[in-house]
Specification:
Elements: H1 2-17, H2 49-52, E1 65-66, E2 72-73, E3 81-83, E4 92-97, E5 102-105, E6 111-114, E7 120-129, E8 140-141, E9 144-145, E10 148-155, H3 162-165, E11 172-181, H4 190-194, E12 205-209, E13 224-229, E14 240-245, E15 249-251, H5 253-261, E16 287-288, E17 300-301, E18 304-305, H6 313-344, H7 361-365
Parallel strand pairs: 1-8, 2-16, 11-14, 11-15
Antiparallel strand pairs: 3-6, 4-5, 4-12, 5-7, 6-7, 7-10, 8-9, 10-11, 13-14, 13-16, 17-18
Bound molecules: zinc ion.
Length: 366
């Protein structure tokens, strides 16, 4: 079974490595406001994005629905390790309402040092949410949408600029985690949420004292899904190596409400439902850094929830082949048994043990 899995994983990794795409277009960085020459976009006209931003109609778009039954375990995926996350309060971080979300600018000293083939440096983090009427995560898991989602955006420092990195296949990495209502206030989120009202209107900026950015992410960074996708807003560049954590982040209902009701969008209405719907996979594979437990399907933890887990493709194949083998072996044994029985009774056709009497012609005519 391990061999089967290893083989399939290698095939998938090879396929993933061959999906490099070139991008000729230029644009503003996600999710900053559109630069000169760029069209206005909004969540109300998602279907029109590809008109002004061709990549938005591409074959490797994000977000996606993660079908946990179709993910493939890869032992190559090591735990995500972050460095430089605990920022001194004397360090001021820019916080901005860009009309589509709230963005916290991050210093490049924050890095991902393990969990990817190369190091990535931080750019910014931002959020996606719904409204008091409904959830608003971008990724979904087995069709389930979570209350919200945090995206921490990183770029590959081997490129000269962030702008250049954004158009390269290995240019960007985004760490994503689902936000979910829990019983307690999440103290790690307080520095951000307490100042959210300072950037209520589109374009407003303020600064936040440095804090431990690591606290915004789940405690467990070992278990995650990995796939190749895109920015989830225009210009939708297909250059993001996604990590979607299995463990969710819990906020209190009050904290989530602050996120859902404080900011205004470009139309001066409350900024809500700033999420894109899941995009087609077009044959892309989704890797998992962990082997899912067979049961129970959902394992609640004290301070978080594990996302749905179930049998992997490798397990299903192993079971199918096992059943197939058992059936074939049984059929063969029955065949052998019949052959032996017949050879032991050479006269069985000529002299049957009749336990009935033949019907008379008269009886058969009725
Ligand atoms: Zn995002």
């Amino acid at each position: 079974m391990n061999c089967t899995r290893l083989g399939l994983s290698l095939l998938l990794l090879t396929a993933l490595g061959c999906t490099a795409e070139e991008h000729g277009s230029e644009g503003s960085s996600h999710p900053k406001r559109e630069g000169p020459g760029h069209s206005h976009w909004s969540y109300a006209d998602k279907a029109q994005w590809k008109t002004d931003f061709p990549d938005c109609g591409g074959q490797m778009q994000s977000p996606i629905n993660i079908d946990t039954n179709s993910t493939m375990y890869s032992r190559e995926l090591q735990a995500i390790v972050l460095s430089g996350s605990n920022l001194d309060p004397s360090k001021r971080l820019g916080l901005m309402n860009n009309g589509h979300t709230v963005v916290l600018r991050l210093p490049e000293s924050l890095t991902i040092t393990d969990g990817y083939p190369q190091e990535y440096r931080a750019m910014q983090l931002h959020f996606h949410w719904g409204s008091p009427q409904g959830p608003g995560s971008e990724h979904t898991v087995d069709g389930h949408r979570y209350d919200g989602e945090i995206h921490v955006v990183y770029y590959n420092p081997r490129y000269n600029s962030i702008k250049q990195a954004m158009t390269q296949p290995d240019g960007l990495a985004v760490l994503a985690a689902f936000l979910q209502v829990g019983p307690e206030k999440n103290t790690h989120y307080q520095p951000l949420l307490e100042q959210l009202h300072e950037v209520q209107e589109t374009g407003e900026e303020t600064t936040v004292a440095g804090f431990n950015i690591r606290g915004l992410l789940p405690s467990n960074l070992d278990r995650y899904y990995r796939y190749r996708g895109s920015l989830t807003t225009p210009p939708c560049y297909q250059t993001v190596n996604w990590t979607v954590f299995n463990q969710t982040v819990l906020l209190s209902q009050e904290q989530l409400s602050v996120l859902e009701t404080t900011l205004q969008g470009e139309d001066d209405e409350v900024l809500q439902n700033n999420f894109r719907l899941p995009q087609p996979l077009h044959g892309r594979g989704v890797l998992a850094s962990f082997q899912a437990a067979v049961s129970p399907r959902r394992v609640p933890l004290p301070d978080s929830e594990q996302l749905g887990s179930s049998l992997h493709t490798g397990d299903v194949l192993a079971i199918l082949f096992g059943i197939l083998f058992a059936v074939t072996a049984l059929a063969f044994l029955i065949y052998i048994y019949k052959q032996r029985s017949q050879s032991r009774r050479p006269d069985s056709h000529t002299k049957p043990n009749v336990i009935y009497t033949a019907a008379t012609p008269e009886e058969n005519m009725g």
